[in-house]
Amino acid sequence: MPAERPRLLLTMGDPTGVGPEIIAAVWADDRVHRVCRPVVVGERGVLERAAELRKAGAAIEAVAEAELPRAFDRTSPAVMPCVQLRAPLGRPGGQAYEAVTLAAGAALDGRCDGIVTAPLSKANLQAAGHDYPGHTELLAELCSVDDFAMMLYLPPGETTRCPHGLGVVHTTLHTSLRSVFDLLSVDAIAAKCRLAHAALAAFGALAPRVAVAALNPHAGEEGLFGDEERTLIAPAVQRVLGEGLNVTGPWSVDTLMGRAAAGEFDAVVAMYHDQGHIALKLLGMHAAVNVTLGLPIVRTSVAHGTAPDLAWKGVAETEGMIA
After folding, report:
1. 248-281, pLDDT tens digit by residue?
2. Rounded CA separation 16/308 (Å)
3. 3-class SS at 305?
4. Which residues contact residue 148 at a Cβ distance below 8 angstroms, ignoring those fewer than 6 apart?
């Protein structure tokens, strides 16, 4: 395999969730090693348990952070280098936080080419004293950026007819539904349209077709069910149209994702978390990839959570991590 394959750090996520075992389970998959040189950031003992559970057959090799260059050269289906964490095992949120900060720092200073994160528990992160609602917001702070977004992305395939895949970008993210109305603005919606356009352009779409979701039922029914479509969303669409972007909307959400999956759009800008997540996960939860837009580093993740009800039973789905 060519040595120029990207160097990726895989963060273990919450050790009480499915993260350790999905990393262990995909390690022997040749599809992974054909495209990258992976190294895990996590707890060696936890990974050894996960490897035994999923019959990974790889030798876990503990390495210090200073040894990353050697670790990337040694990684293979038979050898799983693991950058050992300092946070105590009894603080899963602390371990997850340390893994992300270490990996992001390595990406920022060029010691790796990107990071792939297994899921973490927001509650455990908070319990460990780290006041972030999730990976996305933590990474944005670590990278010192204000203009960022979560995009769930489905590659081209059976679930979508979009030739360059389908991305769903979220205007608001990890917040209460009650607060969404206060957080939406013309500026925020326009910013997410730009990020969606740039992402799909990077994925090969020459003139990405971006559809903006309405907030209210039936796109507000001409103001009968709310006026955010007229006062916020339509002005944002007009603003980015004036910048030369191929953006339309607001579109009624009950039909929008079906149209997008059929190939009419390359990206959808959703107004809030569940509006985008539910629809895309119904199309292909385990094929989807979470991409953080706006960072100076590459960060991808699985599109599912820690799934504590499935963890450590040997049944956790692995296709999301491979994707």
Report:
1. 999 999 999 999 999 999 999 999 999 999 999 9
2. 7
3. coil
4. 136, 139, 140, 195, 292, 293, 294, 295
